[in-house]
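Fig. S4 source data, part A: sequence.
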Amino acid sequence: MRVARALVRHELRLLASLGLWVARRTHGATAAARVFGYTRGQGAMAFGVAFVCVVESVGMSVLLRDWPAAHHVVLVLDVYTVLFVVGLHAASVVRPHVLDLGTGVLRVRRALHADLRIPLGLIGSVRRELRMTHAPADGELDLAVGSQTSVTLLLERPVVHVGFLGQRSEIRVVRCHADDADGFVRAVEEARAAA
């Protein structure tokens, strides 16, 4: 039941992300916050996959034209798939990393799948570090985009990360991607110094 609730919540948040994207709004950013996107390298790929799904839909429509019941079922699934692919990209666009100077918290995010709140006082160091491989390790959270991360955060104490299906883990090292990695690192260092 917990998994079913998580999946329904995911789908609703995906649709909400499409709405925010159309309205050109950002989720979770206040007036005192700075946002850092991470989608520059994935947009073309997302729309390429959506285009392939549309071509597949047309092909299936031609193949199933003599079986209307199957045609309608496959058409609904194909439309849902296109919405899902575009929605995932929209979720990445409207949920950027957020450095909230008002609350002293850095939110490191990856679409709908990760949203880790890190108090600035817990960040031991932040550096620009381009990595293309990420072996899973206890206490590390890798939020790669296009199989790469460009920023590494080392925490003085662990923070709790709640995964997609509710699994909890303590995180000491966070690796993420930012389109402007140098600006992201500078902003976090300045915010840490000010705090």
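Fig. S4 source data, part B ends here. Residues 68-94 form the longest helix (27 residues).
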